[in-house]
């Protein structure tokens, strides 16, 4: 699918894979020779992100400058001539919301990081942000008021991101689209019934809106409990 899609940049999240263990078939993906990987320190099989590019970035950084979270390998940022591309895997608040407070600290530190980038040049943030922002973004909002990914605190964190000058590209283009989900639990045939959540986003600096052509949810693509999304920009 990646070869058919031929992306300029491919962002991967929750890779659960050390740099040394990236599969050979991924290393050899044609058209994506520039590859940058981050994994959790001393925690094999946890978290991890990757960013693969057709053209060599001007610069690549790892993390957000926050020691509490950077050990988990959650963010890779590539600078290109016209924008930054950020691949991010935001922490899950956890069963019983046991990690909600660390998640809130991450949200605050991550927003500060994105603002610092945006002060230099526009930003395209791609990733599993582990939040369904509005009721339209999950199948059963009433039953999930206290579920990780739909708490008031997490939703407010995303609202603060938008208020800081960023745009949820899919919802900007398709404000009324229902049933547009990117994650389905493996339990109970949820994907076949489209009982899902929209947790994966392409968020961009507001001044990039003129370059936004489309944002697609590729729900037919199998291989994970998440599906890919595609952001198309003319930059």
Structure, explained:
- Helix 4 (100-118) packs parallel to helix 5 (152-163).
- It contains six helices and eleven strands.
- Strand 6, helix 4 and strand 7 (123-128) form a beta-alpha-beta unit.
- It has a six-stranded mixed sheet. It has a three-stranded antiparallel sheet with strand order 1-3-2, with no helix packed on it. The chain has a two-stranded antiparallel ribbon with strand order 10-11.
- It has a single domain (1-233), classed as Deoxyribonuclease I, Chain A (4-Layer Sandwich), CATH 3.60.10.10.
- It has 235 residues and is of the alpha+beta class.
- The longest helix is centred in the middle third of the chain and has 19 residues, at 100-118.
Can you give me a brief rundown of this structure?
This protein is an alpha+beta fold and 235 residues long.
CATH superfamily grouping: Endonuclease/exonuclease/phosphatase
The run of helices and strands is HEHEEEHEEHEHEHEEE
Q: Report mean pLDDT, rounded to a whole number.
A: 97
Question: What gap, in angstroms, lies between the N and C termini?
Answer: 24 Å
Catalytic activity: Exonucleolytic cleavage in the 3'- to 5'-direction to yield nucleoside 5'-phosphates
InterPro entries: AP_endonuc_1, AP_endonuclease_F1_BS, AP_endonuclease_F1_CS, Endo/exonu/phosph_ase_sf, Endo/exonuclease/phosphatase
Main location: nucleus
Protein name: DNA repair nuclease/redox regulator APEX1
